[in-house]
Amino acid sequence: MIRLIRAEQIKIYSRPMVWAMAIIFVIIVIMTALFNIDKRNDSQTDDWKTVINEENQLLKEQMKEAPEDVLPYLNSQIQRNEYALENGVSPDRMTSWKFLSLVSNFLPFVTLFTLIVASDIVASEFKWDTMKLLLIRPVRRYKILLAKYCSVLMFSALLICMIFLSSWIIGSLLFGVDGASEPFIFSKDKQNYEHIPMVMHVFLSYGLKMITLCVIVTMAFVISILFRSNSLAIAFSVFILFGGNMISAFLSRIQPEFAKYFLFSHLNLEAYFTGTPIVEGVTLPFSLIILSGYMLCFYAAGWVVFTRREMG
After folding, report:
1. The domain containing residue 50 runs over which residues?
2. Is 228 within 8 Å of 244 (Cβ atoms)?
3. What pTM was estimated for this model as a whole?
4. How many domains are there within the chain?
5. 196 phi and psi, to 5 degrees?
6. Which residues share a beta bridge with 197?
7. Same domain? 101 vs 186
8. What is the mean pLDDT of the chain?
């Protein structure tokens, strides 16, 4: 099994596209750091407090004439600013850990690149007619499938780790290594604000997005098996990745009970810490159970088709 996984890893990393995209992601990290380099010295003065006080005054003036539907947003922004003032947290000061949090916003594009690899790892074997050569080896089909799947997940994890480490190194060089214990301010209901250490927020953010990545990648992997088409797998997965939230929001209004068990409703796991879930009454453990169930169903469908389909 280890030899099969090693062989699949070699196939992945022998593609120039993989290295090109890895370099592009590192360049994006560097450019993001350079765009925010002017924020590294904000902690040396108390000017940020004056700016926030002035912003609050402006927001309060806007609330007098703002429409009803805008008032909750303005009020939440005022409360967020007041919380920052009370706890001495500069919202604009950049640290290495804040930079890591900022870079995590690019992870959906990492998911996009990874699902391309996941879609191609099986479909390309059919395209170049190498699958028959692979299956004549004295290895069970389920092992071949599992090796490909594990290789894709390992590639996903390695890519996330590469971005995390490169971001931390670049962020530490430009913004310093402090800020791990600095509070990250968030609201679950847009009214009451809480805080957790920034380091906890960063690991939660990367961890939860990694779970979402695994679900999307699994789906793309299985679709490429079912239809032997990487383009269809990529198109469908991209649709879910970027359009799933809108579909879930629509379903939660017309069929809230059904929406609780809909895949799209559980892909944004960070909403449990930085906002409100799309479907009310749903908890993080429930979402993790639903996502695990979908992943098992996806893989089971791919396993049945791959092990029983005639490959000739």
Report:
1. 41-93
2. no
3. 0.81
4. 2
5. -135, 160
6. 183
7. yes
8. 81
Pairing state between β 183-187 and 193-197: antiparallel
Q: How many CB atoms lie within 10 A of CB 188?
A: 15
173: left (phi over 0), alpha (psi -120 to 50) or beta: alpha
Q: What is the per-residue pLDDT across 206-234, written as a single tens digit (0 to 9) for each?
A: 999 999 899 988 988 888 888 777 777 77
Q: Looking at the structure, do residues 118 and 235 belong to the same domain, yes or no?
A: yes
Task: Give the position of tokens 């299956």.
Answer: 135
> Does one domain contain both 75 and 101?
no
Number of other residues whose CB lies within 10 A of the CB of residue 21: 19
- Beta-carbon contacts of residue 164 (< 8 Å; ≥ 6 apart): 100, 206
On whether the CB atoms of residues 303 and 145 are closer than 8 A, the answer is yes
pLDDT tens per residue across span 233-244: 778 777 777 777
- Note the pLDDT tens digit of each residue in 73-101: 777 778 778 877 877 767 777 888 989 99
pLDDT digits (tens, 9 = 90+) for 145-176: 888 889 999 999 999 999 999 999 999 998 88
φ and ψ at residue 38, rounded to 5 degrees: -75, -10
**Could you give the CA distance from residue 272 to residue 44 in angstroms, rounded to a whole number?**
34
CB 223 within 8 A of CB 119: yes
Q: Which amino acid is at 287?
A: S
How many Cβ atoms sit within 10 Å of the Cβ of residue 142?
Answer: 11
Give one DSSP letter per residue of 95-130, joined into a string.
Answer: -HHHHHHHHGGGHHHHHHHHHHHHHHHHHHHHHTT-
Is residue 258 classed as helix, strand or coil in its secondary structure?
Answer: helix
Two tokens at 303? 């396993």
